[in-house]
Each structure stands twice: as structure tokens, then as C-alpha cells.
Structure to design on (589 residues):
């Protein structure tokens, strides 16, 4: 399993994905920080069988809503990620699909953000969502560990 | 159409690096109002830099733009080195030019293939384009990745590079590390040449304007990060004189400031300006590639900027190969930078055009004032002026198509709205 947290830590709620990754890695889980730029993201998951991405989105849902999507379903992701990184996660997923470069399984956790000004504070609802996503990912990882599928922890950024 | 008022309102522009909105109002075929709206709060970073030590400026300003962090870092370090009276080793100078090569390749390719080409081919997105032109998009991704790789080798990572500092680099690469890029860069150069020919085969509307082009000009090289600031209307100044000749003003409908040449009007920065003012400094192969497709200065059709970006990508690949051939590591990767009161300015050529930085420091090296003028905010008035002329030509078309054409006209400038206003959102809504 490869876990990738996308976003911009300097843009308030857009740092949610990065905080998730930093926390899970501190707990010994293999994870990577990424800007979320589409072309580079496709490279980042290249070769991985099972990928989890965490990013901030804006869809109009209440702040802190956690959208989840699994590549085994049609893509219902909001087409307007609150991406401070150009062509973002949604475009990466769609482009990879068009090019036949999706991993066998790709899961996306999109945390609904509200504020994207410069700074490091998260909206309270986003902070709660970050914790919820961390718990969900740890559950997935522990299941994989029990099945002998996970790799040793390593935090990296692109 | 006579007497009918038509309003084109695109609330959020797609496929620009950032968030913006376009409002055009026409009475019949006459444009009565054009407003390029930038939603973002005013530039935060100038305030954020105050009270920070100058050594933090490269890292902080690199976060203004995820696509052109190198240019922000380089404008910062050059301005601060000028302020502090530092001289840079020639090998460090070469490395900085190589750094720019990487950024230009990845930024130009991103825009050219993934943001702009879909317009010309009639696709709403590169995803749709990839379904019909898979091999082309795969090659484009590989070309972009090579640019990213150059930036990573020099900067430590491709987004928000961490190695550039005032005085040089934290660590200079070994010759062998750069040599490992050669095969990829040769492939990239060949792909860039193909791209010149491919883009030249696209269909372009006949649309030319009487622009004042503004760019850097250097006596020996196609400009990245050094030179004087020149224009096709007689401007020829050093970076320290920028604020004497360019005026920024607030406009009600946008949070980005509008720039004009003092005593004159809007101006254009970016690849067209560089190409028109520095054609003689391109490598022979890049010049030949342009001439082979009938592209010679002055190019006044902004839609043809896509070809110019391809030519500049050829140049960047060739320049990167030259630098790697000539490079020998410096004796030390950086010189020490003292703390002292100082003021310094610099201009570099971000992929989208000139980027101006000014810093004032106190006796402890703390930044007491900073000014950053991004290329996209300098182009914003020019974009509006283009739309004022262009919109009447397409307004007779079905509204959706006319809207798309106006969006395409904005994308000619590869506007990095995040640089001008520091926010990104990619949604298209049409009313």
C-alpha cells in the first residue's frame, strides 16, 4: 500500500492531506507528502498496486465532510478540488485512467475545506476530519499488516 | 445582433493555474465592459516576509507558486545578493541557469500540452485529449518529468526546492549527477523540436495587437535571471529603476494590482516578449526551428505563444546540455551573506514573464519591507485589452463557443493566477 498526502501546508485547510500523512508516518506507516500536481502524482504512484490519496476538496458540502472514493467505482469526485497545485488529484485520476496508468486499486479521501488563505491553521471541522481520516487509514493499514501486505515505514516528500 | 446586449460571464476559469473570472458585456457587437476578476485576497507574502530573516526569503517565496518556484527563489536571492554586495562564483551562476532550464521545460510543457493544446484541438481538457492522443500526452508527461528532474537534482525536490540560498546553494551537484541527465535532455530536445512543428500546425485566429513587449535583455545570453529591462518602445533600465517606470494601481474588480508603463499603458511580458526582444540570443537550433515553421519576430499574435513556448523549450534543453558539458563544481557551493542594513532589487524571467522583487533589510538582516510583482499581475491589464478587441470577433457564435474562445484568449498568457493572487481552484460554471 502507498499512502500519499497532497496539498500545501502553507494554505490553511489545504494542508489537511499533509497533516494526515505526517501523523500516520509518525506512527510507523509508509507514507509520502506530495504537492498533488497531476503529472508528478501519476509518477508518484507508478508501480504501486494499492494507493491511498488524501487531499482537500471544495464541493459545497459542509466543511469537514470526508468524501471517499474507490477506483473500483465510477469517479464521483468533485471536479473542483481546492487544489493549490494546478492540475490536481481529480485530473491525475482521470488522466491516468485515460492513459491506462491507474493502480489496481486507488482510494481517495477528500476532506472538504473552507479557508485557503496563507497560514497554518485548520478550520476546526477540518481538524476533526483529519483525525477521522487518520483513524480510517490506520485501520486499513493494520488490516494489511495482519495480512502481511504492508512495507516498513518511511516518510518522504517529492 | 444589433441592439442586443449580451453578457458573457465565466465565473471560474478552467485550466489556468489559479482562480479567476471573466466578465464581458457587449451591446450588439460593441464591447461595453471587460473585467478580468481575480477573487483572491491581496498579496499576503509581502506582509508575511516582514520580520523574517533574509535567509528565509527563498523558501518562503518559493511557496507563492507551485509551478515556478525557481523564479521566485532566484528573484529573491539575486535581490538580496545585490543588496548585500555579494559576488557569485561562475559555476554557481551556471547552476542557476540550469535551474531555470528545468523550470521552463516543466512549466512550458505543462501549459502547452495540458492547459492550452486542448483549446486548439477542440477538447475541454487534457483528459479528453489523452483518450484520442494517448501517445502524444504520454510523451508530454515524459518531457515535463525531465524538466522536473532537472529542478530536483539542483533544488532537492521539484516542488518548493530547498537547496537555493542567498549566496549560492546548500550543496552543489557533482559533475556525474548532472551527466546522468544528459540522455533524457537529448530526448527532451528532440521532443521539443517535434513540439515546435506540432504546435505550428495548429489553427490560429488572425489576431494581432500593437503591444509594448517588456523583457530582460542580456549582452551574451537568452535571459533568465540577469540583464537590463528593455521594451520595443525604447525602455532600457536596470532592475533598480523598475518602480520608477512601472506603476501599479488597485482596480475595483480584482484583488491583483494592474500594472502600466508610466506615462503609457498596458504591456506584455512572457515568452512573446522574450522571443521578440532576444531572438538573436536563442541557440542556432532554436532559431532554426522557429524559422522552419515561419515564426520570426515580431510575433504579435498571442495565440501563437504556444509555438514560442515550444521554441523556448528547445532552447532550455540545449542550454541545459551546454551547461552540463561546461560545469565544474565550485570550490564552495555558497558564499556567506552578512547581516547589514541594505536595499536590493532583482528581476528574473519566470516562465510567464518578468518577476520583480525588492527587499529592505535592517542591521540584523531582518526584512523590513518586501515588494513582489508577479508576471501575471503585470499582464492582467493587457489581457483585458486583448479581450476588448477579441470579444466582438466571436460574439456572433453560439454563446458557449464564444465563451470558450474568450477563455482561450486568456490562456494565451498562461496566467498563473496563484502568483497574482495566491489561490487555486479549477471549476468551470456557465450561466
Amino acid at each position: 500500500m502507498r499512502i500519499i498526502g497532497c496539498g500545501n501546508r502553507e494554505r490553511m485547510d489545504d494542508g489537511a492531506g499533509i497533516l494526515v500523512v505526517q501523523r500516520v508516518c509518525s506512527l510507523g506507516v509508509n507514507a509520502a507528502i506530495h504537492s498533488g500536481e497531476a503529472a508528478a502524482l501519476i509518477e508518484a504512484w507508478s508501480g504501486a498496486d494499492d494507493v491511498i490519496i488524501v487531499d482537500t476538496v471544495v464541493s459545497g458540502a459542509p466543511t469537514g465532510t470526508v468524501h471517499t472514493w474507490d477506483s473500483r467505482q465510477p469517479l464521483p469526485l468533485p471536479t473542483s478540488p481546492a487544489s493549490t497545485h494546478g492540475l490536481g488529484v481529480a485530473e491525475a485520476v482521470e488522466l491516468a485512467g485515460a492513459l491506462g496508468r491507474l493502480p489496481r486499486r486507488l482510494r481517495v479521501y477528500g476532506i472538504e475545506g473552507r479557508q485557503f488563505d496563507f497560514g497554518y491553521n485548520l478550520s476546526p471541522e477540518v481538524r476533526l476530519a483529519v483525525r477521522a481520516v487518520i483513524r480510517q487509514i490506520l485501520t486499513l493499514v493494520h488490516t494489511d499488516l495482519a495480512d502481511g501486505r504492508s512495507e516498513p515505514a518511511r516518510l518522504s516528500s517529492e | 445582433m444589433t441592439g442586443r446586449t449580451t453578457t458573457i460571464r465565466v465565473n471560474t476559469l478552467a485550466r489556468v493555474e489559479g482562480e479567476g473570472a471573466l466578465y464581458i458585456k457587449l451591446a450588439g457587437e460593441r464591447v461595453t465592459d471587460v473585467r478580468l476578476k481575480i477573487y483572491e485576497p491581496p498579496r499576503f507574502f509581502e506582509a508575511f516576509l516582514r520580520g523574517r530573516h533574509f535567509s528565509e526569503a527563498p523558501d518562503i517565496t518559493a511557496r507563492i507558486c507551485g509551478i515556478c518556484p525557481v523564479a521566485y527563489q532566484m528573484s529573491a536571492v539575486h535581490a538580496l545578493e545585490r543588496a548585500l554586495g555579494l559576488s557569485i562564483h561562475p559555476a554557481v551562476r551556471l547552476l542557476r541557469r540550469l535551474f531555470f532550464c528545468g523550470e521552463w521545460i516543466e512549466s512550458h510543457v505543462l501549459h502547452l500540452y495540458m492547459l492550452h493544446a486542448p483549446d486548439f484541438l477542440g477538447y475541454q481538457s487534457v483528459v479528453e485529449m489523452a483518450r484520442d492522443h494517448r501517445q502524444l500526452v504520454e510523451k508530454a508527461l515524459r518531457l515535463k518529468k525531465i524538466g522536473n528532474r532537472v529542478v530536483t537534482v539542483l533544488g532537492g525536490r521539484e516542488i518548493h526546492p530547498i537547496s537555493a540560498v542567498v549566496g549560492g546553494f546548500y550543496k552543489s551537484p557533482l559533475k556525474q549527477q548532472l551527466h546522468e541527465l544528459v540522455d533524457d535532455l537529448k530526448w527532451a530536445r528532440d521532443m521539443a523540436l517535434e513540439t515546435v512543428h506540432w504546435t505550428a500546425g495548429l489553427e490560429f485566429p488572425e489576431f494581432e495587437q500593437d503591444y509594448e513587449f517588456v523583457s530582460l535583455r542580456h549582452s551574451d545570453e537568452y535571459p533568465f535571471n540577469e540583464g537590463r529591462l528593455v521594451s520595443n518602445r525604447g525602455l532600457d533600465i536596470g532592475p533598480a529603476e523598475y518602480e520608477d517606470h512601472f506603476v501599479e494601481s488597485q482596480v475595483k474588480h480584482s484583488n491583483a494590482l494592474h500594472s502600466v508603463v508610466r506615462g503609457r499603458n498596458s504591456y506584455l511580458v512572457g515568452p512573446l516578449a522574450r522571443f521578440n526582444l532576444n531572438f538573436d540570443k536563442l541557440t542556432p537550433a532554436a532559431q532554426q526551428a522557429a524559422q522552419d515553421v515561419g515564426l520570426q519576430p515580431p510575433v504579435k499574435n498571442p495565440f501563437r505563444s504556444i509555438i514560442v513556448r515550444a521554441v523556448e523549450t528547445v532552447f532550455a534543453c540545449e542550454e541545459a546540455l551546454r551547461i552540463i558539458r561546461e560545469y565544474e563544481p565550485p570550490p564552495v557551493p555558497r558564499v556567506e551573506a552578512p547581516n547589514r542594513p541594505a536595499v536590493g532589487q532583482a528581476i528574473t524571467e519566470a516562465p510567464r514573464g518578468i518577476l520583480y522583487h525588492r527587499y529592505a533589510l535592517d542591521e540584523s538582516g531582518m526584512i523590513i519591507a518586501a515588494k513582489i510583482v508577479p508576471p501575471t499581475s503585470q499582464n492582467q491589464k493587457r489581457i483585458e485589452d486583448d479581450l476588448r478587441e477579441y470579444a466582438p470577433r466571436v460574439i456572433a457564435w453560439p454563446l458557449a463557443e464564444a465563451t470558450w474562445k474568450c477563455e482561450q484568449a486568456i490562456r494565451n498568457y498562461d496566467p498563473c493566477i496563484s502568483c497574482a493572487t495566491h489561490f487555486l481552484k479549477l471549476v468551470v460554471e456557465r450561466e
